[in-house]
Amino acid sequence: MSLKVEQLAIGYRSGKKSTVIAENLNFTIKCGELTAIVGANGIGKSTLLRTLGRIQPALNGSILLDEKPVSENTVRELSRKIGVVLTEPLSSRNITVTELIALGRQPYTNWIGSLSAVDLGRVREVITLMGLEPLKNKKCFELSDGQLQKALIGRALAQDTDLLLLDEPTTHLDLYHKAQILKTLQGVAHNSNKIIVFTTHELDLAIQLCDRMLILGPEGYYFGEPCELISQKNFETLFPSDLVRFDAKTGTFKIQ
Ligand SMILES: Nc1ncnc2c1ncn2[C@@H]1O[C@H](COP(=O)(O)OP(=O)(O)OP(=O)(O)O)[C@@H](O)[C@H]1O
Questions:
Q1: Distance from Cα 246 to the centre of ligand 1, integer Å
Q2: Is the ipTM of this complex over 0.85?
Q3: I want to staple 50 with a disulfide (CB 3.0 to 4.6 A). Which of 55, 94, 176, 180 is the partner?
Q4: In this structure, is residue 114 part of a structural domain?
């Protein structure tokens, strides 16, 4: 299993006009790898993530999952292959954490949506994995933003897809829980052989925990292992150097 991007152009179409956000993207992510997409505000991280998940169309090029163009899958096929966690608010919060996570099993349930023993087992597994046991019977409206974020990631993990795409999954979390979530995602990628891709502004954590990183910059993009990107000085391209500078020794940005 792999996620292969060939000559991909991402952006927006409005009538006959198209706005290209990034183009000529080429990279391959293998199963068992955790990958972060990083870059400055407005550079195109979410646009790329949504394009990879077929939530918005590519302007050009192709996205292949296990050598098959994602565009050739039906919606139901895609729901078993790609799980997506976006930053949009939940439409209804009047359900329990367990019910929310169980929604992730929808691609596998029958037409009346009843959960099998396998579905229920997976829901229980995810509740334990995400540390949601104490919250499992709480209604979603009773949760803090960080707790809800964990439950939403739980829903996507219950979906059990080969590819999991998450847009800023650690935004509302404190440092401890940011590290905990990213460690959990790393564990899922490594132990269950999944491809997990997420956008983030947490450069330090991503450098420490990811197998690959994709840096989107104003002049182009860089893709590789964090240590390669550090030694090639690619992190220096992320921001103008008047205020912050990347320190290759510690792998962190320092304020000038
Ligand atoms: N629906 C849309 N129509 C047209 N342009 C859009 C749309 N959504 C985003 N853009 C533009 O696309 C560019 C990339 O936006 P995107 O949200 O992908 O950036 P990002 O890197 O995720 O930013 P951030 O770190 O601030 O979340 C921005 O210039 C934005 O204004």
A1: 25
A2: yes
A3: 55
A4: no
